[in-house]
Design a protein that fits this description.
Blueprint (H helix, E strand, L loop, with lengths): L26 E2 H7 L5 H9 L3 E3 L2 E2 L6 E2 L5 E3 L2 E2 L7 E6 L16 H4 L9 E2 L8 E7 L2 H8 L7 E7 L5 H9 L1 E3 L2 E3 L3 E6 L2 E9 L6 H8 L4 E9 L2 E2 L8 E3 L2 H9 L1
Parallel strand pairs: 9-15
Antiparallel strand pairs: 1-4, 2-3, 2-5, 5-6, 7-9, 7-17, 8-9, 10-14, 10-15, 11-12, 13-14, 15-16
Length: 259
């Protein structure tokens, strides 16, 4: 009988997706640094050997060292993030608290994006529980800081529904500026949305002060019945149903980083 040749079967080890730890929860330090976008693995080994990398505050020069995603790995005084960068836009509905974790909140925005990706993302800035509209999530700390720091003055546009008609003289007051408890505020622009419904107002503002839009109208004697953020840093919720999310396009991401 003719002998059946036996071919050696080689099973290729499944590679871990970039940034994810191995099954034991550990990831090589040079891969961690490379995934964070600092340099290649080979160059990362040089940084480690030169004592330029710390783990949880301790200088490490040992090649082959492994870490977890919970370790504080720093290079040049900045904490590194080895995870894939995620940029996600949610059309926030009413009744959800903008927080990563709140034991007193029945519903948080994190519940709406819990199945979006394995990476740990968090909301950029805040929308109060009853405010709807554009809310960005990311794990890009540098971008989040850029978008929320007052010095960058990122534009926000809100659609406001008031409890009564908005008076023309109040538009003039806002154009000159009004003084709230935490300083003078002047909207960048304010427009009537519908000439047949004077309760509908559009306001553009770059201030990041807490609940500033509601406080502006309260100061003038109005109650805000509905507040919807329609633009944040150039991002809109066009064609995105309430409560749904989508990932940003490469063009949108580039725009955010360059603006």
């Amino acid at each position: 009988m003719k002998e059946i040749s036996r071919k050696k079967i080689i099973l290729k080890k499944k590679e871990q997706p970039a940034g994810e730890p191995a099954s034991d929860g550990l990831i090589r330090l040079n891969k961690y640094i490379s995934n964070a976008g600092i340099c290649s693995r080979r160059d990362a080994d040089k940084l480690i050997s030169e004592g330029l990398v710390t783990i949880n505050g301790e200088v490490v020069t040992e090649l082959g060292r492994k870490v977890t995603l919970d370790d504080d790995v720093q290079f040049d005084g900045k904490r590194l993030n080895p995870e894939r960068k995620i940029y996600l836009l949610l059309n926030k509905p009413r009744g959800f608290v903008t927080t990563v974790e709140d034991p007193n909140a029945e519903r948080t925005v994190m519940q709406l994006v819990s199945n979006a990706c394995p990476e740990r993302i968090y909301p950029v800035g805040r929308l109060d529980m009853q405010t709807t509209g554009v809310l960005l999530f990311t794990n890009d700390g540098e971008l989040a800081k850029k978008l929320t720091h007052p010095s960058y003055e990122k534009k926000k546009v809100y659609h406001v529904q008031l409890d009564q008609d908005f008076l023309p003289e109040d538009i003039e007051k806002l154009e000159k500026g009004i003084e709230l408890e935490d300083g003078i505020i002047i909207p960048d622009d304010i427009q009537m949305i519908d000439p047949k419904d004077l309760r509908q107002v559009g306001i553009e503002i770059h201030s990041g002060k807490n609940r500033v839009v509601r406080r502006i109208f309260n100061h003038l004697g109005y109650q805000v019945e509905r507040l919807d953020r329609v633009v944040f840093a150039g991002l809109t919720k066009k064609d995105l149903p309430r409560g749904r999310y989508r990932f940003l396009t490469p063009h949108e991401i580039s725009f955010l980083k360059m603006s």
